Amino acid sequence: MFVGIDLGTSGLRALLIDDAQRVIAAKEASYDTTRPHAGWSEQRQSDWTDACIKVFAELRAEAPDAVAAIRGIGVSGHMHGANLLDADGTPLRPCMMWNDTRSVAQAARLDATENVRDLSGNIVFPGFTAPKVAWVADNEPDIFAKTAKVLLPKDYLNFWLTGVYASDMSDSAGTSWLDVGARDWSDELLAASGMRRDQMPDLFEGSEAIGTVSPDVATQLGLPEGVIVAAGAGDNAAAACGIGALGEGDGFVSLGTSGVLLTGRDAYAPKPASAVHTFCHAIPDRWYQMGVILAATDSLNWLSRNLQESPADLTRALGSSISGPGKMRFLPYLSGERTPHNDADIRGAFIGLDIASGHEALTQAVLEGVTFALRDNLEALKSTGADLKQVIAIGGGSQSPFWVELIATVLNLPIALPKAGEFGAALGAARLAICAADKADPVATMTRPEIDTIIQPRAELRDQYDAAYAAFRNSYSGIKALQS
């Protein structure tokens, strides 16, 4: 038996599978994010460990024999978070999350530093780890002075499990401290933000073992002795492992809190100016690239809160098929934007509101705005040489037939919908556990899911959506000027 843990933004999910990758049980526990100031987003590390203890208790209650037979654990987690620990491994402050944007000035300073983009392969975004730690150095110097180690969120959970300071390549690539081409910490990048190599965890490929669950934690979780823990992966790399997106042209579109368009790459091909993320994959000698928008289903959830209708009811009212773009335009920059703008300050907007505009028109505008932002991501990926022919849709937004057909048409890509089952980050983490515990071949282990249906682009509507996308793309500069 193997467990994949997905340390998500809103909760922790544990998936228990057997060696044939059949699902035995799955459990979840939620926790809160605090936002004490504008642009801040923090979580308590103890909430993660408490959630882990809770889900393992529930797994034991449902499948005690299976839990007793667990041989490996893999963890995926939200990326870019900063956990600052003292010399005893105790957190010095809450985790600064991936969507914490307080470090705009520090990110700009690091991004302008010579060789930083060349070595890291990426723009230094305010959400990345290095500028967050630089913010601590500037604003909480006493904490910075006590910092002995900096761990990413899933690496903190692995440290709690094993007592080992470790990270994998995929997650570490999002810190701005890793030489992504060389797959190693860069002393030059570390020095740019006042850090040292000894403050970093040891590096592993995600499919490698970092150690075993410590006896004390094994007792808390009800695990047998000697359970292997894999290095794991950042959430998007783990999701790619879950759907078998490992190499050139394999990809997915994720409609979660944020939106991601990801493709595997067989070689390192960075283009930082595009604001495309170029990261190591969770398995050896592979990379992946992705465009990221910060508010995908978050935009729909925002509308849902304000209209006091559920997201499902809002999208259901649009029907199951598109008929052409609406007259209203929505810019989904509710929390700023990454690809292609790298703009933490930009905010969203509706353009073309009419006195007759109702819930359906607002909903359609929101779905179109998010989809046009994903088209921005596709164009940025193409500029790096990526060549997607088809993508798998995952995440909560993929449950809307209207939205999936809209994405297929705007991106001009067939969208594959998997049959019901597990294929996300938790499964990817469990697959990494199989590789770590059994030394299994990652390519043979991380197969693609069975596809239920493929949604084709609506060719007869392409010209209309292309024109609407062009208008959307031109709107950014105008909204930026108004907000300056």
Automatic annotation (TrEMBL):
Keywords: ATP-binding, Carbohydrate metabolism, Kinase, Nucleotide-binding, Transferase, Xylose metabolism. The active site is at residue 235. The keyword Kinase applies. It catalyses: D-xylulose + ATP = D-xylulose 5-phosphate + ADP + H(+). InterPro entries: ATPase_NBD (IPR043129), Carb_kinase_FGGY (IPR000577), Carb_kinase_FGGY_CS (IPR018483), FGGY_C (IPR018485), FGGY_Carb_Kinase (IPR050406), FGGY_N (IPR018484), Xylulokinase (IPR006000). Substrate binds at residues 79-80. Residues 252-437 form the Carbohydrate kinase FGGY C-terminal domain. GO terms for molecular function: ATP binding; D-xylulokinase activity. CDD domains: ASKHA_NBD_FGGY_EcXK-like (cd07808). It is an enzyme of class 2 (transferase). Pfam families: FGGY_C, FGGY_N. Belongs to the FGGY kinase family. This is Xylulose kinase. It comes from Shimia haliotis. The lineage of its organism: Bacteria, Pseudomonadati, Pseudomonadota, Alphaproteobacteria, Rhodobacterales. The gene is xylB.
